Amino acid sequence: MSDDLQQFHERNLARDPQYAVARQLLDLGDAVKRLREGAKLTRGQFGKLFGVRAHDIVIIEEETPRAPAGLLEAALSLLIQRARAPQSKQNSEIARSLRMVRHLRPALVAA
Question: Which residue of 13, 70, 73, 87 has the fewest CB atoms within a 10 Å radius of its CB?
């Protein structure tokens, strides 16, 4: 990230609560993508398993602030269920992300 962009980002995180929430949600979307890829699932495969279209997975991963409140939480919950080692570091990161989604839920915009 360039210095100017980093300064803009830090300034907005400090001053604008909506920007801060949107940034956290985008980070969660990135986490969903990494977890899905770690499970070796395509967006289509994950969508089929999850019972949604691949386009809905795109919204979760790339346009997270636009995702319906329950969709992001349900995607993380499904990834928790699919995790193989219950005490793994990955599981604790997923659980932490899930708690964050529940905390941020009022800020999510319904699609």
Answer: 87
